[in-house]
Amino acid sequence: MEFGNETRVLIALDVADVTEKKGKREVAHKRAYFVASGADFTDGRTGAFKQVTKSGAGARLAGAPAAVVLYPTRTFSRGFGGTMFSDIAPEDRAMIRSLVKNTGEISFFKIPLSEAGVFERLPDYLADEGQRERFRSESRSGADTKKNDFTRKRGWRFPVEFDFSYIRNMGSIFRSCMTKPNKQDFFYLVTKTFGVNLIVRVLFAVKGVRSGNLPLVRAVLSTSWYQLQDIVFTIFGQTYMKFLGRMTGMLRVWRANIGDFLFVYVQFCFFEFLNRLILGPIGENPLVYTWQGIALILLNNLQGLVSGGPLVPAINKLREAGLIGHSMMMHLYQLGSLCFYFGLFASFGYQTIYAILTGSVLVFAWGSYIIASVFFKDVSFGRVSDHEVRDRLDAAVGACYLAGCTKAVK
Fold this sequence. Notes:
Blueprint: E1 8-21, E2 24-36, H1 38-42, E3 50-52, H2 57-61, E4 66-70, H3 90-102, E5 106-110, H4 129-141, E6 160-162, H5 165-168, H6 170-177, H7 183-210, H8 216-235, H9 237-246, E7 251-253, E8 256-257, H10 259-279, H11 291-308, H12 311-320, H13 326-336, H14 341-347, H15 351-374, H16 387-404
Parallel strand pairs: 1-4, 4-5
Antiparallel strand pairs: 1-2, 2-3, 6-7, 7-8
Helix pairs in contact: 6-9, 7-8, 8-10, 10-11, 11-15, 12-13, 12-15, 14-15
């Protein structure tokens, strides 16, 4: 569909949210949407673009042909190697579903990062020279169009494929995911880690000591080890979520990318080995450093991963599809960690109870993961090849960005 006078135009781009706290200037980015009539767009009246909410976009586009143009986003990035940009934001997907359902003739376009040179001219969009260099590097390499899930390959492929590049670059991927903890993280640190979780762990340890199966020193060490893990994964929950999302493409089995599952499985086995080494043989658990003990750890973690393992990847999928916001994603992540209590039953030798619990959560966890993965597909996107239209879009982006930015109040 051409960008004619009758075609209303909606542009999706990131705008800056600038704040100042204690003399320190901080810049965050949020997704914003701007709409103008086709006549205003064709005549180059960039000031005619009006900002609309994600939910209100449909009303502004109703009754006429529409063109939705997505510029790359830095509000959500899931690509391999810790890329700064992604070609589509979760909010875009939610908006598109609403438009497809309630709007008539509509076309969708993506602007690749390699053609988004306007970003370098926008104030506060790229904070420093380091970010500018990353932007140029990703633009040159086409990082916004590469997929980390091997889907760009054609022809016959071996059903199992492991990408060792993720192992080589794991350090840089993790550093790119590091996120400063916020108030929500500290809230859960107090209420969950040092509240509910600590109480439950102490109860398990006290029961083991009172029954005579667990020496007091081992109980204290095991509880401290679990508590240390809980502190780290609560405070750096956002970092962990981003890191898992970017590890997805490490392993492909047929068409499924399960690199995050593999990473979580290895991580859990390692941590559980250390915990049972501290606990010693207890309940139905043999010595951990025997073949039987190691096999039981592998089995227990496989049980937990198959049943509840999809919870964190499913939360990532729900966020990626635009079904939940960032705040809800972090709430679900923190609340989902309550399922780790199931592991305490296995660690303290209650294997039968553990099997019942993991079996009961299996249907719910896998159902959420499958629904988010299968039933929410992207629409078909076109490319804007007309250079004159591209120039008008870039000019509109500059004006919309300045109009949508939130400046710091001094």
